[in-house]
Amino acid sequence: MRVLIAGGGIGGLTTAIALRHQGVDVLVLEQAKELSEIGAGIQIAANAAIVLRELGLETAIRSVGVKPQSYDYRDLRSGKMLYQAPLGDEAARRYGAPMYNIHRADLVQILSDAVPAESKRLGARCVAVSQDARGVEAKLANGETVRGDLLVGCDGIHSVVRQHLRGQEQKHFANILMWRSLIPAERLEGLNLEERGNYWFGPGRTLITYWVRPKNLYSILASVPAQEVTRESWDESGDISEMLRSFEDAEPRARKMLEQCQSAFITGMYYRDPIDSWSSGRITLLGDAAHPMVPFLAAGAGQSIEDAWTLARVLSRRQDDVPGALKEYEQRRLPRTTRIQAGARAVVKLMHETEANRIRDRNGRWKGMARIDPFAETSWGLAWDYDVVKATEGAPGEVLNVTGLREGKCLRRPESQRAFDLWKFAFRPEDVARGHDGLREAYDRFLTTNFPLPAGTIAVEDELGDVKAWRVAAPNAPRGNVVLHFHGGGYLIGSAKGSLEYASRLAAAVDGVCYTVDYRLAPEHPYPAAIDDAVAAYRALLARGVAASSILVSGESAGGGMAVALVLALRNAGDPLPAAILSVAPFADLTLSGPTIRAFNGDDPAANRDLLTFMGASYFQAHEPTDPLVSPVFGDLTGLPPLFVTASQGEVLLSDATRLAERAERAGLDVTLRIVEDSVHVYPIFPFLPETQTTMQELAVWARRNLRRNDMKSAAAE
Fold it and tell me: CA-CA distance, 246 to 254, in Å (whole number)?
């Protein structure tokens, strides 16, 4: 077998080395007349270092690169530390290999030296490709045609091979320009720039800086809004006055560092949207040709290296079925790279916030994450915590998709699989790429599209005190019993309007009315905003003449935890307590210490550890997450009313539900715990599930036993 590789960059050269490692003949076709790499530094995280180790290259990289001890995030103007991600030996223990920072030219040279001269051709620009049943042909700019058994397009974001497969496609400009520079060590004396990732964040701009040769050469990546640079050419230039103007208010150490740049060159930040196929017959794509991404997860090169190993291993096992091998390669890689593409765009958005309030919210989230994610697993683990060498020997369906779900996961029954698939496709790559703004829109779309308000049910906008809510009931339903409901969404997403259909069934279960509350969301409104709104809404019901003995406090997911936290707050304040609490799949421990958070991570289409960390940290921020009003699983539940808890076996929040129920039982509460099999997170919102119908029937009986109807005429009854 002979494999043609179009492109001799990091992806193309690693592909050649990996294929040769598997005994496959290769020919790299590189348009440049000599292999060199302009640019500055590159970060090789554990996921890529594991592959390079397997290929026998780690020692060479270690000899010229730097092993940073941490990523230090600082405010650009004040220099204040915002967040620290430990690396060095800690990262090596956690992820299986250390992080290396290295000059791009040094990495390319190491890779090139590992490919023998007969396996690469320089000055060989591929201008067209074709294939037939027996092989492929690459036409070069000099008119020559080269033939092989298959062709891998490693020719970057402007890939000729991709254009052959897919035609002209739009690339996107992120409206960010990046200055790159390298500074000799002697110019940085006295600035105390340790062997760390020294990062500064300011409004709409960042400085990403680190050593690429130990105490010898320092790399600068300075990103700025596109409109701040006005020039006819973005080529290399010795004039850095524009860059310095963009960072004129930087704190002294950062400013002095930038002033040592003698030259810099500038490039735009471009990306393409994820695509659903990379391969056709005997031709496939790899690296930036397949999944060009913005560089803010330090993941572009790493994903190319992962691609290379996967392609080589799959092809070595299926040389008699090249099209099948390429489809398997794509099946193993496309979900993961789509996840990284979306995640990288979300990080770009997060790190380039321009509005003061959103910067405050982001920094508050980092404070929260430092409390529950001290090793930065959520910040960086989605890219780094992956051993492709092991993964390629396992089933293709084990790969995690854009929402952190194993692609091969499925449920047993058709109706539960239907609910599973609704969750699985609730968030698209573009939604994830837009951060919490995109997640909010997607979640409301998911709920309102799939669960419309039933015909014959009336939903009216209302206010409970100063808190917005919806009042939901059948037209002629009795008004005596009241459900006060809190929607889910990790305190970050969701709305009362999205819960109207479920609210209608809750109202029917208690033979009364349901108020579903639009409490304020994080990160704009961190703790205690949500619990304050819950208390205000409950007290407003009492003020309307609704008896506490006729109120069922209800919630699902984050709302399920908040329902319990609300009653704790009411007890502590001496308010009359509601008659009962319904907590569905509660997010009741925002420290994420429940064992099923890790045990079922990747199996739950609705939630995963990364997302829950992001959500929880957005809510409690600088507050202590073990506070029972944040995480009621840590509270003293003595004196609370009867509690009904339900969840699904296999969901990540299962242990939150069971631990909450166990703690309530130890406190002497009347507890009903219902765990269902072969189902999904907050299964009661899916009305077509048999277990939903059974649970709602059980809930109705339980409510009749615990609620005492309020027959008073009140504003709530009108």
Answer: 12
- Measured from the Cβ of residue 116, the count of other Cβ atoms closer than 10 Å reads 10
Torsion of CA 236, 241, 246, 249, to 10 degrees: 140
pLDDT, mean of residues 684-701: 98
Angle between helices 435-450 and 322-351 (to 10 degrees): 110
Strands 458-464 and 467-473: antiparallel
Q: What digits encode the pLDDT tens for the residues 432-491?
A: 999 999 999 999 999 999 999 999 899 999 999 999 999 999 887 776 899 999 999 999
CB under 8 Å to 242, separation ≥6 — which residues? 228, 229, 230, 231
pTM for this one? 0.94
Residue 610: burial class (beta carbons within 10 Å; 0-12, 13-18, 19+) = buried
Lowest mean pLDDT among 412-416, 418-422, 565-569, 713-717: 713-717
In the three-class reduction of DSSP (H, G, I as helix; E, B as strand; rest coil), residue 405 is classed as coil
Contact residues for 228 (Cβ-Cβ < 8 A; gap 6+): 177, 242, 245, 246
Helix axes 300-317, 322-351, angle to 10 degrees: 170
| pLDDT tens column, 332-348 | 999 999 999 999 999 99
Q: Which residues pair with 556 in a beta bridge?
A: 584
CA dist., res. 394 & res. 514, Å (int): 49
Number of CB atoms found within 10 A of residue 265's CB: 17
Neighbours of 414 (CB within 10 A): 7
Q: Are 551 and 706 in contact, with CB atoms under 8 Å apart?
A: no
- Cβ atoms of 581 and 483 closer than 8 Å: no
- Determine which helix (DSSP H) or strand (DSSP E) holds 111, and give its type and residue range: helix 104-113
Half-sphere exposure of 262 (CA within 13 A, CB side): 8
Pairing of strands 136-140, 126-131: antiparallel
